[in-house]
Design a protein that fits this description.
alpha+beta, 351 residues, 9 helices, five-stranded antiparallel β-sheet
């Protein structure tokens, strides 16, 4: 995050850069995930006041950045969708699969390095006065994980039941088949509706995250705004790329895929618009705000962790095109997966 003076008294004699702010008495402060954190010259944490910080916001600049984020998000999400639509490459083509692996790494890193870590920072704020249950973040993450599992499990059972029902010749009574074929157990071939559901759930988790990203960007102080903006710009490209690579796989019309892409592209700008609307009142140190944003971050982390590990990582490598891929394809896709994890984790230093 960009850096700001500590709330309540460290603004005099401030030396500022694009990444940190240091007061004359040696107190260095920065915001991470919207949570101010200050340390003295010896590295000891300095408590900041929980009142609303007094900042002057450049509203016109923020409005301009909103449209840049909109265009960048659209480029990220539509690149894989249009590539799949207007090229002859099939879904198991090396380039397409490698793109999906990069996206898988992005989603997993987003869940753990960004969402989970940010939720921990919100719940760990001194402005909450400490939580009675220290594992709050992990518990909410598990709730998101479990709810996603339940939704997909029910959909899977319904889908498999529909697949296994056959009608005997000359009768109108459906009869379940005794043994499902091996192919019927492969979700990529037999249950396209499950893929659509998984992608929709993935987008829902990303939408929560994107709204918060937009809000946090706008309410950051001017001194670190451009640095944070650049980081989020890359963040939106990579996250959009990850989502778009999954949208490209789902069955159905091209128009449906366009709608899903547009929803993602609009979400972070919407969060920014909300932030601009509440600039004069927003207090990121308010306990209710900390709890609300922390809860959404942790819950979204659970959703994306399930989608990233189970629906993307496991499905591709154990039941998809990489289960029996050759050495070159395996190495390229493994490097792509690791690259996605590393890139998004590095961005976690600032956003």
């Amino acid at each position: 995050m960009g850096t700001e003076p500590a709330d309540g008294g460290h603004e005099e004699g401030v030396v500022s850069s694009s990444t940190e702010t240091t007061s004359a008495n040696g107190v260095s402060c920065h915001d991470h995930a919207g949570v101010p954190h200050c340390v003295d010259a010896h590295g000891n944490t300095v408590e900041s006041e929980c009142t609303r910080p007094q900042r002057d916001y450049n509203v016109r600049l923020r409005i301009g950045l909103l449209f840049v984020i909109l265009v960048t998000s659209a480029l990220g999400v539509f690149a894989p969708i249009l590539t799949s639509r207007f090229t002859s490459w099939k879904q198991d083509h090396l380039v397409i699969v490698a793109m999906r692996q990069f996206g898988t790494g992005i989603i997993i890193s987003t869940a753990i390095v960004h969402l989970f870590t940010h939720a921990e920072l919100y719940f760990g704020s001194e402005c909450l006065g400490g939580l009675d249950y220290e594992a709050t973040t992990g518990a909410i993450l598990m709730a998101g994980l479990f709810l996603t599992f339940i939704i997909e499990y029910i959909a899977h059972r319904v889908s498999n039941r529909n697949i296994s029902i056959t009608t005997e010749p000359g009768t109108s009574d459906p009869k379940p088949t005794d043994v499902a074929s091996e192919d019927s157990l492969r979700p990529k071939n037999t249950a396209p509706q499950n893929l659509t559901l998984a992608t929709t759930i993935m987008e829902a988790g990303i939408i929560f995250h994107s709204l918060l990203i937009g809000l946090v960007l706008v309410v950051a102080g001017d001194s670190g705004l451009i640095t944070l903006f650049i980081v989020i710009l890359f963040h939106q490209v990579f996250e959009g790329f990850s989502l778009g690579s999954r949208i490209a796989m789902i069955p159905g019309g091209f128009g449906h895929k366009i709608v899903l892409g547009v929803v993602f592209a609009l979400t972070t700008p919407l969060g920014m618009a909300i932030g601009i609307g509440v600039l004069s009142k927003f207090n990121g140190n308010d306990p209710s705000t900390l709890i609300a944003i922390g809860t959404l971050n942790a819950f979204s982390a659970g959703i994306l962790l399930w989608v990233g590990v189970v629906e993307m990582w496991f499905q591709e490598w154990f039941m998809g095109p990489l289960a029996d891929a050759g050495a070159v394809k395996t190495i390229v896709c493994m490097l792509s997966l690791v690259s996605g994890i590393v890139v998004m984790s590095v961005l976690g230093k600032w956003a």
